Queue: 3 jobs
Job 1
Amino acid sequence: MPIIARAMFRVSRSARAAIAVALLGTLLAGCAGGSAAPVSSSAGPTPSNAGPASPVPSGAGPVDPDAVACQEQVGAAKAVRNVVGAIKVGPVLPAGVAYFLLGARDTYAAPGVRDAGLAAARREVVAAIDDLDSQGKAKLPPGGDPLKDPVQLDPARVVAAVNAVDRECAGRI
């Protein structure tokens, strides 16, 4: 096993997430043709690496799924905003955007949220992430490669959707 891979197993989940976010910035911003700007210097856990939002102490009552979803929102929103930051810098690789938003998409698509407004806002984020993926495919030149051909995407819908979840979660965490 390579040294880096062995070292990653010894690193905490949050540290692995921070490394992944740093790699995201490097990968996506590097696609902008040298006009790279830092995406974020304060990386938090990404949803795909985040553990349970809050451990339930033994003897505690049931966990509110809406509160858990709002706690997960913190990491998921950060991951989306980091990708949006790279998109705003310049053209990005569609495959990179899809890859780095996969964990956030899974978080927002997870079932169990009871509040109708919060559930609808989370579904809109999933649809907005899917829209970014569709934009990436549609903007590729004929015969283009999503791993090699950067395209300019419009992140307005995903930003609005994440902000809507933030509003729904206000006061829940």
Note: Confidence is low (pLDDT under 50) at residues 1-19, 29-57.
Job 2
Amino acid sequence: MSIPKNVMHFRKQRAQEIRRFADKLESYIGNGISVSLYKAVNQLNDENYIPPYRDEKGYEKIDSNFWGYSIENIELGITADRHLKPRELISAKASLSISIVSNYTDWEKIKDPFYELSFNVTIKGINPKSNDGAHYFGFHIDRHHESQASEEIHPVYHLQYNLNPRKDENFDYGGTLNMDSPRFLHYPVDLILGLTFLIGNFQPENYQKLIEDREVKKIIKEYQNSIWKPYYTVMANHWGGNGMAMEWDQNVICPYLL
């Protein structure tokens, strides 16, 4: 299946933005972080790569208008470590795996920017005094797919904590309680907005450098306009229309709205 020229041009624009963002991260953060991001660049530039997506019934399909990328294990050191517990922890790092699928024809419209989103973060703290030498924590920001029926409340985009991100059957939960709910309402993120979110929380000093960089700031604002503007416009429209055509149900974003 060939990719239309206009879609390929769009993909190459996204690839160039991620490349510029990756180069800036390498300058401010280093540790080879740009290498992982270049995987997304290569996927977007690959004319033979079309990410599969699931329709509303859960069937996998391919459409040349769809674009996206999938990357695993982008590592980010944690410098905001003043409140790490247990106190014996000597260092911590976050590992991100992300996958998105989006329709070219939906981009920069007042509708859902993604068909699929998986943003998974595993945090590992090193403790030389513990039995296995490490402590784990995790969370994910996901898009709830229409084909996944559930009796629980599912905001289409939500953040959910995971105390056992390695899914170890013998995991010792200690005095904590782990359960699926609640799923916290959260705005959608891509690679650029998602990494900026992590850097802001885990490396605040580098975050300040990023947002003071004119080129980085311009890229971030463009993605906020493309991804966050539809989300918050639809949400705000619940309290009064602004004349814009809405193609996204507010109650899908926030099931609590009445």
Note: The chain has a mean pLDDT of 89.
Job 3
Amino acid sequence: MRRPLLLLALLAASGMPLAAESPAESCGQLRSQIGALPPGDADLLRRLAARNQECGFSSADFYKAAYGDRPPAREAERPRRSREHDEDDDD
């Protein structure tokens, strides 16, 4: 969960020059694109990061833009080690 936010923070730091190159979109236009575009659209995420200070997007906005309405699939859990002692243990 923290990795996407870290990635978005890095995009925000590096994406500032990109905002000057693209035509300015209003905060409302960007918000309307969050649910309309397919999740994980890198261009949208860059534009959100570039305009985050002035538009004040929440982490939920970034999450929805990155993953959509559904959370990402969890990694398969590792099997837990048994807490039982083996027969050859002394304890």
Note: The two ends are 40 Å apart (CA to CA).
